[in-house]
């Protein structure tokens, strides 16, 4: 009845955390109240940065094959398409995955569960966390199992991936400040036809109701996500698809043939005050929740899991002090707060009421958006933001140095020179060094002694175009973010980086 980490909640966040830790030799126990993986889902979008990070788990190809990539976003006004934003044309030089990818959360969860089972770890279903204590250098949790009996479980750390109503968060007392949108949201999986059923994302800017049509894998399938008019807010449970279907048909010309699933729900905008308290951590919806605008929620939770996983593995394997775990909150809470603020502003714009709001949304915005869409810089900024490839940890105590546009804490720029893809080495779940150009022999010797993988790339103009600098040393963390940028190229800088933080590569533990 003991594991290194007890994970509460088997959604995508908890499952990715379990996968990462298991791959690094950490013993995990993952529990969930549900009897099975989700059979319906609201989360759809898998962003480019998530697909990049999934390469470490050998998941990217399976997610791509199981879903549908979205090459463009279309904005509609008064029943007509106002403008189109071509995603593929923007991101081709930025990422191996220059698109928004649709892969429903229920299918996503099943894939993660299967991969975890292949590693010998099964989710303990119909198991509820009743409480836990954090003392004497351990976590002692009480679990209620499927037969109603109670079970004591001991772990070094507990990870709360248990959603917006997180019991782990409640017990840690870290609060959940924020608010609740007054609008009622709905989601519906449908079979339909019409100009909006062309495999792209379509968003309606009319009125004060939000409406988006997401393409789904399979001919004529789509997910409708929208808000319901205020006069029915107080009676959300009585809303049926008939209450909203006319609007979808009228505004986005979607002719519905069959409804497979329909649900209404409320959305909050909240961020907990602390992501870590002692030996307890909060991830995903347990730590932050916001409107579905931009398709960021599930991706942010997965990002939390990957950020925390390598740090837990490092501490548990004796490769880092416990203080390394403090950087999880430092790095993730700022992004969560910014994300909640950004999605709140966007959602407030698309749902604002009144004559002026309608004028801005239906007259001014359609004139401005095409102009913005023609600007390469504006399109690239939008793609980088939504895809999460701009997310960085520059303010982290783990980040050091800069050269050109690349700073410690940044995502490593992607570049392909000839047949050489600099992201190929990032499948390694450990610290590593990249040098684009020539490397000093003493540095190479030091990397070998420390157990650091050294990747040397012959200097090419493609690397310069991507923002990389010749002969500079880029130290990469196990989650592939740049830890240190050093222009001197001397081995002593690497030595000081690891020694000052009391860190060791994980590879030194493996034979």
UniProtKB/TrEMBL annotation:
GO MF annotation list: monooxygenase activity
Claim: Transcription is one of the keywords in the record: no
InterPro entries hit by this protein: FAD-bd, FAD/NAD-bd_sf, RIFMO-like
Keyword entries, A-Z: FAD, Flavoprotein, Monooxygenase, Oxidoreductase
Cofactor: FAD
Pfam families assigned: FAD_binding_3
Domain annotation FAD-binding: ranges: 3-341
Name under which the protein is recorded: FAD-dependent monooxygenase
UniProt organism field: Dyella caseinilytica
């Amino acid at each position: 009845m003991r594991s290194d980490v007890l994970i509460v909640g088997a959604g995508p966040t908890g499952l990715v955390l379990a996968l990462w830790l298991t791959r690094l030799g950490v013993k995990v126990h993952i529990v969930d109240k549900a009897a099975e993986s989700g059979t319906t889902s609201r989360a759809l979008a898998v962003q480019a940065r998530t697909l990049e990070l999934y390469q470490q788990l050998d998941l990217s190809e399976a997610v791509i094959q199981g879903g549908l990539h979205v090459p463009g976003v279309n904005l509609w006004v008064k029943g007509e398409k106002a403008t189109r934003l071509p995603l593929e044309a923007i991101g081709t030089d930025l990422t191996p995955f220059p698109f928004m990818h649709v892969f429903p959360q229920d299918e996503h969860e099943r894939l993660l569960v299967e991969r975890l089972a292949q590693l010998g770890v099964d989710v303990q279903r119909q198991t509820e966390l009743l409480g836990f204590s954090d003392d004497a250098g351990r976590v002692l949790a009480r679990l209620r199992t499927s037969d109603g009996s109670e079970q004591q479980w001991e772990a070094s750390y507990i990870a709360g991936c248990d959603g917006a109503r997180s019991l782990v968060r409640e017990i840690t007392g870290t609060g959940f400040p924020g608010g609740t949108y007054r609008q009622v949201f709905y989601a519906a999986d449908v079979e339909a036809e019409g100009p909006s059923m062309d495999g792209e994302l379509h968003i309606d800017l009319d009125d004060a109701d939000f409406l988006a049509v997401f393409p789904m894998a399979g001919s004529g399938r789509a997910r409708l996500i929208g808000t319901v008019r205020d006069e029915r807010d107080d009676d959300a449970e009585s809303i049926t698809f008939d209450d909203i279907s006319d609007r979808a048909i009228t505004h986005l010309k979607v002719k519905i043939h069959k409804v497979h699933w329909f649900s209404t729900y409320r959305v909050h905008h909240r961020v907990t005050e602390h992501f870590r308290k002692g030996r307890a951590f909060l991830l995903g919806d347990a730590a932050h929740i916001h409107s579905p605008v931009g398709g960021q929620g599930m991706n942010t939770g997965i990002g939390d899991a990957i950020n925390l996983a390598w740090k837990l593995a490092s501490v548990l394997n004796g490769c880092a002090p416990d203080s390394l775990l403090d950087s999880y909150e430092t790095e993730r809470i700022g992004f969560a707060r910014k994300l909640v603020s950004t999605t709140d502003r966007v959602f407030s714009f698309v749902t604002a009421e009144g004559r002026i709001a309608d004028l801005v949304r239906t007259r001014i915005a359609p004139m401005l958006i095409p102009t913005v869409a023609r600007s390469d810089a504006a399109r690239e900024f939008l793609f980088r933001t939504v895809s999460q490839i701009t997310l960085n940890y520059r303010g982290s105590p783990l980040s050091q140095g800069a050269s050109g546009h690349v700073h410690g804490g940044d995502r490593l720029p992607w570049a392909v020179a000839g047949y050489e893809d600099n992201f190929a080495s990032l499948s390694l779940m450990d610290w590593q060094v990249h040098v684009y150009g020539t490397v000093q022999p003493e540095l190479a010797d030091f990397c070998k002694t420390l157990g650091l993988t050294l990747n040397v790339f012959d200097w090419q103009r493609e690397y310069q175009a991507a923002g990389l600098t010749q002969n500079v040393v880029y130290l990469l963390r196990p989650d592939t973010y740049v830890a240190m940028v050093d222009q001197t190229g001397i081995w002593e800088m690497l030595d000081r980086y690891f020694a000052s933080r009391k860190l060791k590569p994980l590879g030194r533990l493996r034979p």
